[in-house]
C-alpha cells in the first residue's frame, strides 16, 4: 500500500475550539503525525462544552495524539520547546499576543528549528482590526455573510462553523505550500490564516456582483436568481424538496416527464430568461403540482428527468444516507463519552489516502510515550506528573 501523502510530517497542534483543530485534523487525515497539546489536568476546554459545542472535540481531534502540558510553568514550556524543536509544523490560534507571552513566538522558535513551518491562525491579519478578538459569527456579521444568509432585515449566521473550518483549510493550503518551498530552500516560514479574510474571500462573488449592479445586493433568500426554478416545494406529506431547473434542457425533460404539456407548449416559457419573467405565475403553478405528489413520487420524477434536486434534511438524517453508507463517507470513531458513531471523512480522493480514523485521544493519552521520544527518563516523567506539569492517564 502506498504511504499517505503527508506520512513523515510531524505537527504540533496548539489549536483550540474549531479553527486550529480543523487544520490539525485535515493534516492528520492526510497522514501527518499530529500531536495535540492540551492544558494539563483538565485538557482541552472543548471537551467540557455543552450545546453545539459538544460536537467540537469529538470531530476535530480524531487521528491525533495527545500530550497534556502546563504551558504556564517553566518546566512545561521546556517540554513544549523540545517537542516543537523536532516538529515540521506548528499550529496555533491563540488570541493576539498569547504566543509572545508564552515565549513560543515564531522569531524565538525559528532559532532552534529553522525548518519549522509556523502556522498562526488569527481573527484578523495585521491592520486596524488586528488586536480585536474574533469569532466565526463576528466575521459573518462583519463581511455580509450573515446578511446574505438571512431574509431581509434578519441576518443569520450559517448553520455550521463555516468560517472557522474554511480558515483552517486555508491554513492547510499555506502549510502545504510552505512544505513545498522548504523542499527547495531547507527553511520553514511563518504562515498566516485569518477568519475575517477567509470570510471576505468567500464573499468575493457577491463583491463582483455588486461592482456590476446598479442597486444594493439583496440577501440570498430574496432569490434574485440566475435560474427560473431554484426553489423548495412542499409535497403532499408536508416535507420539502429543493428543485433546480438551470437549463432549457432541464425544463424540457421535466415538463415531458411530468406531463406538463401546457407549460412545454407555452412559447414564453421556452427559455430560462423567459421563465424568469414569468416567475410570478410559474412558481405557484409548480407549487400546486408538487403539492399533489408524494415525496417518493417527486423524488422519482426529478431523478428520471435528471434535474438537480434534494430532500430538505436534518443533520442526523446523514447517518442513514445510502450514498455515504455505500461510499464509506462516514468513518467510525468512538467519542470521549463512549458513543460509537460515523463522522464525515476528508472529502478528498487520491492514491495513498486510506480514510481511516482513530478515535479522539484521552487527555494526555500519549504524554509518557512522547516524552520518552523527547529523551525524558521515566524518573523525569514521574516527577513532572507528580507536580502536574504534565498529565497522563493513570
Entry summary:
With 394 residues, the protein is of the alpha/beta class. It has helices spanning 19-29, 56-60, 74-85, 98-101, 106-112, 136-143, 145-149, 162-185, 195-202, 204-211, 248-258, 261-264, 272-277, 279-291, 295-304, 322-327, 367-373, 378-386; strands at residues 10-13, 33-39, 64-69, 89-92, 117-122, 190-194, 229-234, 240-245, 309-311, 330-334, 340-344, 390-391. Strand 7 and strand 8 (240-245) form a beta hairpin.
Question: In words, what does this structure look like?
Answer:
The protein is of the alpha/beta class and 394 residues long. It folds into two domains: 10-202 and 328-391, Rossmann fold (3-Layer(aba) Sandwich), CATH 3.40.50.10540; 225-315, 2-Layer Sandwich (formyl-coa transferase, domain 3). 40% of the residues lie in helices and 15% in strands. The protein contains 18 helices and twelve strands. The chain has helices at 19-29, 56-60, 74-85, 98-101, 106-112, 136-143, 145-149, 162-185, 195-202, 204-211, 248-258, 261-264, 272-277, 279-291, 295-304, 322-327, 367-373, 378-386; strands at residues 10-13, 33-39, 64-69, 89-92, 117-122, 190-194, 229-234, 240-245, 309-311, 330-334, 340-344, 390-391. The strands form three sheets. The chain has a seven-stranded mixed β-sheet with strand order 6-5-4-1-2-3-12, with helices on both faces. β10 (330-334) and β11 form a beta hairpin. The chain is elongated.
Amino acid at each position: 500500500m502506498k504511504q499517505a501523502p503527508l506520512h513523515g510530517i510531524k505537527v504540533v497542534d496548539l489549536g483550540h475550539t474549531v479553527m486550529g483543530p480543523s487544520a490539525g485534523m485535515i493534516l492528520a487525515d492526510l497522514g501527518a503525525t499530529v500531536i495535540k497539546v492540551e492544558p494539563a489536568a483538565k485538557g482541552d476546554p472543548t471537551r467540557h462544552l455543552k450545546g453545539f459545542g459538544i460536537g467540537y472535540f469529538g470531530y476535530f481531534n480524531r487521528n491525533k495524539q495527545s500530550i497534556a502540558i502546563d504551558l504556564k510553568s517553566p518546566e512545561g514550556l521546556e517540554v513544549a520547546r523540545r517537542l516543537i524543536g523536532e516538529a515540521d509544523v506548528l499550529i496555533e490560534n491563540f488570541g493576539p499576543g498569547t504566543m509572545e507571552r508564552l515565549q513560543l513566538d515564531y522569531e524565538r522558535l525559528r532559532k532552534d528549528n529553522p525548518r519549522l513551518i509556523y502556522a498562526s491562525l488569527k481573527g484578523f491579519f495585521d491592520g486596524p482590526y488586528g488586536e480585536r478578538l474574533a469569532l466565526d459569527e463576528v466575521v459573518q456579521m462583519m463581511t455580509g455573510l450573515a446578511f446574505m444568509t438571512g431574509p431581509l432585515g434578519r441576518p443569520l449566521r450559517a448553520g455550521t462553523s463555516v468560517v472557522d473550518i474554511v480558515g483552517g483549510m486555508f491554513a492547510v493550503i499555506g502549510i502545504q505550500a510552505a512544505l513545498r518551498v522548504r523542499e527547495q530552500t531547507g527553511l520553514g516560514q511563518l504562515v498566516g490564516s485569518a477568519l475575517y479574510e477567509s470570510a471576505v474571500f468567500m464573499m468575493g462573488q457577491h463583491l463582483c456582483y455588486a461592482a456590476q449592479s446598479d442597486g444594493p445586493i439583496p440577501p440570498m433568500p430574496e432569490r434574485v436568481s440566475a435560474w427560473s426554478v431554484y426553489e423548495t416545494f412542499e409535497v403532499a406529506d408536508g416535507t420539502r424538496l429543493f428543485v433546480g431547473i438551470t437549463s432549457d434542457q432541464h425544463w424540457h425533460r421535466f415538463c415531458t416527464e411530468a406531463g406538463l404539456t401546457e407549460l412545454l407548449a407555452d412559447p414564453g416559457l421556452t427559455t430560462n430568461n423567459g421563465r424568469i419573467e414569468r416567475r410570478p405565475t410559474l412558481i405557484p403553478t409548480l407549487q400546486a403540482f408538487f403539492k399533489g405528489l408524494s415525496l417518493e413520487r417527486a423524488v422519482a420524477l426529478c431523478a428520471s428527468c435528471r434535474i438537480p434536486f434534494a430532500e430538505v434534511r436534518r443533520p442526523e438524517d446523514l447517518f442513514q444516507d445510502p450514498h455515504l453508507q455505500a461510499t464509506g463517507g462516514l468513518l467510525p470513531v468512538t467519542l470521549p463519552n463512549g458513543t460509537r458513531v460515523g463522522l464525515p471523512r476528508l472529502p478528498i480522493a487520491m492514491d495513498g489516502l486510506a480514510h481511516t480514523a482513530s478515535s479522539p485521544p484521552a487527555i494526555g493519552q500519549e504524554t509518557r510515550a512522547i516524552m520518552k521520544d523527547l529523551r525524558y527518563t521515566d524518573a523525569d516523567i514521574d516527577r513532572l506528573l507528580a507536580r502536574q506539569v504534565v498529565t497522563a492517564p493513570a
